[in-house]
Specification:
This protein has a 5-stranded parallel β-sheet, with helices on both faces. The longest helix has about 35 residues. Helix 5 packs antiparallel against helix 6, helix 5 runs parallel beside helix 7 and helix 6 runs antiparallel to helix 7. It is of the alpha/beta class and about 230 residues long. This is Response regulator. InterPro entries: Bact_response_regulator, CheY-like_superfamily, Sig_transdc_resp-reg_receiver. Keywords: Coiled coil, Phosphoprotein.
Length: about 230
């Protein structure tokens, strides 16, 4: 069963949170509410999120300050942030949002379809990264076992390699399709860069897997980093 991605919705107004949930419910992911910056930071301590929708104007800790805290934490600094705001103070205000680490800055009222499409891109990228980490973990187990099946494991090394290769091929195909979709839709630069980073990690994983094939002597394969 594929685990759902979590999307963090941060807004001090309950009616705005309800509206966001209605818009994003079609994505069939886990939507987590936070009514303040402080509550959002607490949620980020324990859960991993695909993307954060963050209201700018909030009492106490506003969206800019909340984003600054998120970007300072190693655990959360790479989570995409989409700022939502009901006001528009011009280019300087927008620049402040991007400077705080946002990947997008959307003024209310916004087009529900556009918001849902933008969020879906980051959810898909997050899911592909999760799949890549799973493949890397399986490959690492194979490397640590020296290419031999564990005690009590009836699966032959060649069978395990074939399974790993097939799973990786599926992820590679999905990542390639996503990259083409981003190119066709002229997507955000941040999304395109994230997709390119994912493809580089897939390439490194494929090379490490190919090095384990029988008859291949390329030295000890190195797994791609998961940063």
């Amino acid at each position: 069963m594929v685990q759902k991605a979590k999307i963090l919705l941060v807004d001090d107004r309950p009616e705005n949170l309800l509206a966001l949930e209605a818009i994003l419910s079609a994505l069939d992911q886990t939507l987590v509410r936070a009514s303040s910056g402080e509550e959002a930071l607490k949620a980020l301590l324990t859960d991993d999120f695909a993307v954060i929708l963050l209201d700018v104007q909030m009492p106490g800790m506003d969206g800019f300050e909340t984003a600054a805290h998120i970007k300072r934490r190693e655990r959360t600094r790479d989570i995409p942030i989409i700022f939502l705001t009901a006001i528009n103070h011009g280019p300087h205000h927008t620049f402040r949002g991007y400077a705080a680490g946002a990947v997008d800055y959307i003024s209310k009222p916004f087009d529900p379809w556009v918001l849902r499409a933008k969020v879906s891109v980051f959810v898909e990228l997050y899911m592909k990264n999760c799949q890549l980490r799973e493949q890397a973990a399986l490959l690492r187990l194979q490397l640590e076992g020296g290419g031999k099946p564990a005690v009590g494991d009836a699966q032959e090394p060649t069978g395990l390699l074939a399974e790993l290769s097939a799973r990786l091929a599926a992820v590679e195909e999905q990542a390639e399709a996503l990259s083409k979709q981003l190119d066709d839709d002229s997507a955000d630069a941040a999304a395109v860069a994230t997709a390119a980073h994912l493809e580089r990690k897939l390439t490194g994983l494929r090379r490490a897997l190919d090095a384990l094939e029988p008859g291949t002597d390329t030295g000890a394969p190195t797994l791609p980093t998961q940063n």
